[in-house]
TrEMBL record, chain A:
Entry's Gene Ontology molecular function annotations: acyl-CoA dehydrogenase activity; flavin adenine dinucleotide binding
All residue ranges annotated as the Acyl-CoA dehydrogenase/oxidase N-terminal domain in the record: 6-120
Phylogenetic classification of the source organism: Bacteria, Pseudomonadati, Pseudomonadota, Alphaproteobacteria, Kordiimonadales
Name of the protein in its database record: Acyl-CoA dehydrogenase
Domain Acyl-CoA oxidase/dehydrogenase middle: residue ranges: 140-212
Source organism of this protein record: Kordiimonas lacus
Top-level division of the source organism's lineage: Bacteria
From TrEMBL, chain B:
Domain Acyl-CoA oxidase/dehydrogenase middle residues, every copy: 130-223
Record's protein name: Acyl-CoA dehydrogenase
Domain Acyl-CoA dehydrogenase/oxidase C-terminal, first and last residues per copy: 235-385
Pfam families, per database record: Acyl-CoA_dh_1, Acyl-CoA_dh_M, Acyl-CoA_dh_N
InterPro entries assigned to the protein according to its UniProt record, in alphabetical order: Acyl-CoA_Oxase/DH_mid-dom (IPR006091), Acyl-CoA_Oxase/DH_mid-dom_sf (IPR046373), AcylCo_DH-like_C (IPR036250), AcylCo_DH/oxidase_C (IPR009075), AcylCoA_DH/ox_N (IPR013786), AcylCoA_DH/ox_N_sf (IPR037069), AcylCoA_DH/oxidase_NM_dom_sf (IPR009100), Mycobact_Acyl-CoA_DH (IPR052161)
Record-level Gene Ontology MF annotations: flavin adenine dinucleotide binding; oxidoreductase activity, acting on the CH-CH group of donors
Keywords of this entry: FAD, Flavoprotein, Oxidoreductase
Source organism per UniProt: Kordiimonas lacus
Source taxonomy: Bacteria, Pseudomonadati, Pseudomonadota, Alphaproteobacteria, Kordiimonadales
Length: 372, 389
């Protein structure tokens, strides 16, 4: 497959970038933060995004989606990384949709996927239990038909209508076997949802399960990792695409700034001390773009994508870290003021870098997949 | 069957028939590389035969036009040929600056006569070329070059000195930047070809820290060069040179996917019970490096696809050159670490007869030759990013 966007994908890119720049620029996120919005996103925007078909990008056409797949979702995620548009897109349209598509029965898919694709239903995934990403380390117990335990870092967990929960049905934390996925409704008896105001002005939740009914199983009991891991890998690559958007945007903003900002009577962008760093930064974004596009294409092609996902997530995490650091440094004092937008980007970058495994997690996994 | 599929079938059959068995094994270093030229010492009959067969078909330069000795293949066909050669692990029949650097420049700027005279002998590997660019006082500031040409009607008399001329002592002809006007720095340079066997040409190899001597000092003392071999316009050689450098840079960064370092490391050091390299920090460094390498390999693939889709590379090649060469330096630092004290054996079995330390040292020049990393960064800053001077 050629590593260029086809005509359809190019159109999607243009329409997504235009849409978010117009409807959800970063000023919207700033407003949501300053107003301490209850949900942390604009319901109107979400409605419009859904009408644009964005909520159904990863859902196949048979289930009411647009079937654009990972490349399509990656294009939209990258555009969102540029404007930091807040919505349940990542939690529901990417994560919820991927996990259900991978794990659920035909009946469950028919019930859930069309509602996810239309944006009416928000489904998220409760995975992490500590401050570190470690799916196999899951301890939350499913026993006697009840779920007991804690989940944290659940994206948009405070607004989700349904939560997919990774629970241990047998074995010990650290075992790959013995994990199962359950679907739990918001408001289920025994489920306590604590919204966390995150530094990136987005939201995640801590969920406490105190004897919540484990009524609806997704996929085979004890074998969750077989379906969850490939689904998570798709999500990781799309998170990498959003990180790429963050890196690209901070780069472009900074290049404009150093062309304009004058010191010593000349634009600071004329100094080699900045030019060479800018050139290196450009290079890192270019190679990241390739790693992400390759991984997105491989994800759509099917097959084992662990190696590609870890490559893309690791590389994008590293580049976004470089980009946000350099952007602030080259903006000087302006870079650390709240009035300037760079703070939003560095905060969002670090959260995304951590989500579903950070650089170290994925560099380690990349090595393990390569046989060392 | 589509035309391309038919081409693949024919190509596969032809390669099967014509590629000697010994040319289907990986090249073991410099000695197995075929450079061609008047005085080339072929390593084996097979090496010679393989060059002759591929050269006769124009497949040493698959996309060059047939009338100039090329294969006349489309990009898609050339890709298939490359895939089929890779499939049987066929070695490249010919490595040559003529193919890699001069050819593309001649195809773009040369006259029909110049192309007819020089391209077919490049394709067949009969003439080996070297590049006369840098001078003792014109390195990164290449346009400061002073080797000058005196106009003598149908020819020039050339006097001066070049340096870092790769394999000048083994080459048959040189493509050279010569000052034809001393009043204008950039617009006073011409691109001229002449025979290294001409009277007044002498070369002196420079021994490097690696112990190898791939570069020479090259001296011109009243050398006669014919005007019919001036490429492009008089005093416009800088344009040709820049175009050629773009190709050189792309070439340097197009070395193909190297053997993953983890494979070298596992072969050398083994793995522990967890299936991991026993040295944690080394494992970490290798993973970090390989992530960058693979991202870069995908970037070259993407750059090729972009070019195929009609998006010009231009100054992008400066980024590929800088990134690729810095990665290669890192790679060899890691190879030294993997091999520990074995890597210090200047001669001896554990360093493949000194190849490990010598290649490591050789890579130090990667980010200097063909324009330093710093020069590439200047080019990216100005031409890609549009930063002010």
């Amino acid at each position: 497959m050629a590593m260029v966007l086809n005509e359809e994908q190019q159109l999607l890119k243009e329409s997504a970038e235009g849409f978010f720049a117009e409807k959800a620029p970063i000023t919207q996120l700033r407003k949501l933060r300053d107003n301490k919005d209850e949900t942390g996103y604009s319901a109107d925007l979400w409605q419009e995004m859904s009408e644009m078909g964005f909520a159904g990008l990863m859902v196949d056409e048979d289930h009411g989606g647009t079937g654009f797949g990972c490349v399509g979702a990656g294009i939209v995620a990258e555009a969102m990384g540029k404007t930091l548009s807040a919505s349940p897109f990542l939690a529901s349209s990417v994560v919820g949709a991927s996990v259900i598509a991978a794990a659920a029965s035909e009946e469950q898919k028919a019930a859930l996927l069309p509602a996810i694709a239309s944006g009416e239903l928000i489904v998220t995934l409760a995975l992490d239990e500590t401050s570190k990403h470690d799916p196999e380390g899951t301890a939350l117990k499913a026993a006697g038909g009840k779920l007991n335990g804690l989940k944290t870092f659940v994206p948009d967990g405070h607004v989700a209508d349904k939560v997919i929960v990774l629970a241990r049905t047998s074995g010990e934390p650290g075992d790959r076997d013995g994990l199962s996925l359950y679907l739990v409704d918001k408001g289920a008896s025994g489920l306590i949802v604590d919204r966390v105001i995150s530094m990136d002005s987005r939201n995640w939740a801590k969920l406490t399960f105190e004897g919540v009914d484990a009524a609806e199983l997704l996929g085979a009991e004890g074998k969750a990792m077989d379906v969850l891991e490939p689904a998570l890998d798709r999500c990781r690559i799309i998170v990498a695409a959003e990180l790429l958007g963050v890196a690209q945007q901070t780069f472009e903003v900074t290049m404009e700034y150093i062309k304009e900002r004058k010191q010593f009577g000349v634009p600071i962008g004329s100094f080699q001390a900045l030019q060479h760093r800018a050139a290196e930064w450009f290079g890192e974004i270019e190679v990241t773009r390739s790693a992400v596009l390759k991984a997105l294409q491989m994800a759509d092609a099917g097959g084992d994508i662990r190696w590609f996902a870890s490559l893309a997530k690791a590389k994008a995490s590293k580049t976004a870290e470089l980009a946000t650091k350099e952007a602030i440094q080259m903006h000087g004092g302006m870079g650390v003021t709240d009035e300037f937008d760079l703070g939003f980007f560095i905060k969002r970058a670090r959260v995304l870098q951590h989500l579903f495994g950070d650089y170290n997690y994925h560099a380690d996994r990349f090595a393990a997949c390569s046989g060392y | 069957m589509s035309d391309l599929e038919a081409f693949r079938t024919e190509t596969r059959a032809w390669l099967e028939e014509n590629c000697p068995a010994s040319m289907r094994t990986p090249a073991q270093g410099e000695k197995d590389i075929c450079w061609g030229g008047r005085n080339f010492n072929f390593q084996s009959e097979d090496q010679k035969l393989w060059l002759e067969r591929m050269g006769a078909r124009g497949w040493t330069v698959p996309t060059w036009p047939k009338e100039y000795g090329g294969g006349g293949l489309s990009k898609d066909e050339a890709k298939i040929l490359a895939e089929e050669m890779k499939r049987i692990k066929a070695r490249s029949p010919l490595t040559s600056f003529g193919i890699w650097m001069l050819g593309p420049a001649l195809l773009k700027f040369g006259t029909h006569e110049q192309k007819l005279e020089h391209l077919p002998s490049i394709a067949r590997g009969e003439i080996r070329w070297c590049q006369g660019y840098s001078e003792p006082n014109a390195g990164s500031d290449l346009a400061a070059l002073a080797t000058k040409a005196e106009d003598k009607g149908d020819h020039y008399i050339i006097n001066g000195q070049k340096i870092w001329t790769s394999y000048a002592d083994k080459s048959d002809w040189i493509f050279c930047l010569i000052r034809t006007d001393t009043t204008d720095k950039h617009n006073g340079i011409s691109f001229i070809l002449f025979d290294m066997a001409s009277e007044g040409v002498s070369t002196k190899p420079i021994q490097l820290i690696s112990g190898y001597s791939p570069f020479c000092e090259t001296f011109f003392d009243d050398v006669k060069a014919y005007k019919k071999n001036l490429v492009g316009e008089v005093n416009k050689g800088w344009t040709v040179a820049k175009y050629l450098l773009t190709h050189e840079r792309t070439g340097i960064s197009e070395m193909g996917v190297p053997t993953p370092l983890n494979r070298l490391a596992v072969d050398k050091l083994g793995t522990n019970d967890a299936g991991e390299l026993p040295e944690t920090m080394l494992r970490h460094q290798i993973a970090e490096h390989e992530i960058d390498v693979m991202s870069f390999m995908f970037t070259m693939e993407r750059a090729k696809d972009e070019a195929k889709a009609g998006n010009e590379m231009g100054a992008y090649s400066s980024f590929l050159k800088a990134y690729g060469t810095e990665l290669n330096k890192d790679r060899h630092e890691l190879i030294v670490k993997i091999n520990g004290s074995d890597a210090f054996e200047w001669e001896g079995q554990f360093s493949n007869n000194g190849e490990i330390p010598r290649t490591w040292l050789r890579t130090k020049a990667n980010s200097i030759e063909g324009g330093t990393t710093e020069i590439q960064h200047n080019i990216i800053a100005k031409r890609v990013l549009g930063l002010p001077s």
